[in-house]
Amino acid sequence: MSKQQSDSKQLAGVIGFFEDSHDLVNAAEKVRDAKYRSFDAFTPYPVHGLDAAMGLKRSPLPFITFAAGLTGCTLGFLLEFWTSTVDWPLNVGGKPFNSWPAFVPVMFECTILFAGLATVGGMFLLNRLPNVTRRGFDPRLTSNRFALVIDSLEENENEDEEQGSSAKKPTKFKPFDESEASDFLKKAGAKEVKSVYTEGWF
Amino acid sequence: MATSTEVMQYTPDVLVTGGKTLADVNDDISAPLERFPTKKWWACFIIAICVFALGAALATEMFTKGLGVLGLNQPNGWGVFIVNFVFWVGIGHAGTLISAILFLFRQKWRTGINRSAEAMTIFAVMTALLFPVIHTGRPWYAIFWLLPYPNQRHLWVNFRSPLLWDVFAVGTYFTISLVFWYIGLVPDLASIRDRAKNRIRKLAYTILSLGWRGSNKNWSHYEVAYMLLAGISTPLVLSVHSVVSFDFAVSNLPGWHTTIFPPYFVAGAIFSGFAMVVTLLVIAREMFNLKNYITIGHLEKMNKIIMATGMMVGYAYSCEFFIAWYSGSPFERFAFINRAFGPYWWAYWIMASCNVFIPQIFWFKKARTSIPIMFVVSLFVNIGMWFERFVIVVTSLHRDFLPSSWKYYVPTFYDWGITLGSFGWFFIWFLLFCRILPVIAMAEVKGVMTPEGDHSPHPHPQSSHSKEVSVRV
Question: Structure pTM?
């Protein structure tokens, strides 16, 4: 990834810094309505209302959790059923081989285990984590600063568009222009605007 | 120590006192991580290691000589080790209650205490897991006995046994608590990374934080993941101590064979866990200067939960006696009369006074908001809850159906030494945690400090400028 660094500086987008979360939410609404192709906000904590302001769709994670939970429950039962009735049926206290009520606790725990691990794994996958080679924009973004980044993605570069970033295909996107985007962020309330150049990941 | 002014200043709605800004949160909570350990910390750490070493040495000797060095004998096949297992698993429950159940109930005050409570959960479960394993006497075989895997003996574990349910319940509990805790840590580890000056430190926290940058597209998935984990941890935590109680309740022994056990154990677990959280946090807020984040208000709310769960436990105690009489079974009746007035009467009454009577002092606001009183009460509750498990395990076993085999179980030096060693093990981990990881969930605290924490959807942007969110450049 970092090999691209050699071909000098390549513009990745513009970043605008905000003093507080309300300015950020207001600005995010404006950027969303201006139909920029791709943009993201960076905040030290999850800001309520920002998902809506950015037009993000709800995360598909619950479906992953549900599917994994169902799988865990089924596998848990199959393990118990197969070992107790098929592979080595053993008479324990005269109980039936398939004594399913006694299998429920382990089925339950398997459900939880699979669902929990899949939730975490799914979250990492959707968030493209871990990714320790990329850099942050500003060390204070994890402390007390808020930022909006408008990406300079070209039309054809947009194939692997991240989930929920904008509306359906036929929407006309606003073409990206560095100075225009900077001015837009300033007008939207950014206290400081900088250009962002690619450094590996962007 | 709580000065009277500290109590006077406290208002229930303010979760972070002292007029802190967002940047202050990072500065204050990261401070203990970024300076060298104090003498006090080293003293505690060395004591913890010595205590653990004592336990480890005694355990090693127990492995070489055999379980005969313990006080176990017929009819007491279970003793202090099982008491410790149940005690430590129970301690863990408060952490999950705070992180999961209070999250689902939108209790914002949990943000100040959830990180350390979850850490306590993980270390408590790690401590608990030691006991069933060393209790086998041949711990190197335990893994083969416990897990269902294809083996050369062509045998499988018995899935109808509550002891095996325990393996799955506690194993799942540990795994899910660990990932839940870690997910909560990721944004805070990124904060520590961004503050790091030292290169090695920066590298370590970069890897630990997985490259988290606080992107809102990430927060969006993150928050859903956190909620889902809270949702699945809630039935999990209720199931874990229920399954632990099945170890007893599924048997046919009078004193154990009781349908009230699952809810009674869960309430007791939360009770003892909150007491341990209060014990630890009263010390931690003092040592790391976190009084503005873990306020008297937080502690008071925990004391209310201690009192409520203490009364649930008290109800369970009396209910057991009622059922023992109402069942008409002479064996049940004997087991319970023997429990309160037999040779172990002292253990029963230590349990009842520590768990039921002493927490009643929290009816008084003065007691709930007094640091010395709550610290002492929390210690009593911990002692009482240890004795509760002692009473359940020992008094039900020591007089079995054949009076000629009745025996007075006395734990030996090995029992006590290894028990003490488990506290050393727990505190080693907890002290390391205080040094390496942020003890308060910084990102979550910021979420409840700012106007977003309120339920007003559109606060006035002008006024919010000057409030808590003021930025120091």
Answer: 0.88
